[in-house]
Design a protein that fits this description.
Elements: E1 13-16, H1 19-28, H2 31-44, H3 49-68, E2 75-82, E3 88-94
Antiparallel strand pairs: 1-2, 2-3
Helix pairs in contact: 2-3
Length: about 100
Amino acid sequence: MKSVCPCCHSSAVYEMTDSAHDHLIDELLSPAALIGLGVSLCKSFRVHPVIGVMVGTALATMIEMAQSNTALPMLINKQYRCDDCTHVFSSIHSSSSL
């Protein structure tokens, strides 16, 4: 369903995305980063690094499962910008209607 600007009722709107922010979060929550963090923490607390590998792997697995779980409908707040009047507005959609 195409969004319409609430000010000028134009259909010339586009979704605003913050791809740099999303990319940074994906890098920080990557399995390699979490495993490395686990190993570093274990070394600093003088615990065997294998424990850090296991904890980092488990945490990365849980995050991946939570991100790919689309069984529950989630509300997504999207921001749009009108090309005609440059008005920025947000719209809440259910993921099942996307």
